[in-house]
Amino acid sequence: MKDFFTLEEIDEVALVIKAKTRHNPKIGLILGSGLGDLANSVENADIISYGDLPYWPNSTVHGHAGKLVIGNLENKSLIVMQGRAHYYEGFSMAEIGLPVRVMQRLGVEIIIVTNAAGAINQDYLPGDIMFISDHIALIGMTGNNPLRGPNLDELGPRFPDMSQAYDKILLEKAISIAKKNKIKPYSGVYVSLSGPSFETPADLRFMRVIGADAVGMSTVPEVIVAVHGGTRVLGISGISNKANLDGSTITTHEEVLEAGRIIVPKLTKVIKGLLAEL
Ligand code: HPA
Prior knowledge:
Order of helices and strands: HEEEEHEEHHEHEHEH
Radius of gyration: 17 Å
Bound molecules: hypoxanthine
Oligomer: single chain
Strand order of the largest sheet: 5-8-7-6-9
């Protein structure tokens, strides 16, 4: 496990990818738990296994394919992560952020980050999507910030601003595309925890009080790295389950994957709609 990466190491990965693809993507897409099927819509795809890339964190979680799919969607060139690594698997925060760093060095300007999340907001139902308007970096506040360590000054400042982590223009566009497609256009605050245990009812009531609408175990580290490097971000949570605020139900990974099947067609519509407008 590596705690920090140098620019040279990041560029080493970028060079391997460049040698394996004909495409020159400007848009990155990270697919969360149960959402990997979206990558099947990519045309003229060059596919790279995570295992063929140096340093790359290779997720072992069921529902994460572990492939980079580089190709076209709506005539836009994009690089898709079919599966992501999580902190709870034992990777360092720097390793979780590495794919975003590599995308930045490949010339990616916009990253669309997706995840599966539990609904703290009681209006949301499994199968809904929530556009992320802001996040609570609970995992970062407790010391696990992906920017900890030597700052890569070539990429961004030591103390990056996070007041507009989620690009307002992309968020508004995505909401309007959802409305046009008769998809409920929820937007809200995502809180990230390390996992892998799901939350207790008391954890969840705490998160409701501090203003979270959805909870998950990913996304925030990647977004912090993206914003640090000047990349525009759209975040989308696929709501897989209602968070268990009163302790009356249980949460399982199977239901998270099951909800993905309902969410993928909605996400595909929104992402294709957005790409067509970019
Ligand atoms: N909690 C945390 N992470 C999750 C959940 C949840 O309820 N659902 C999907 N990912």
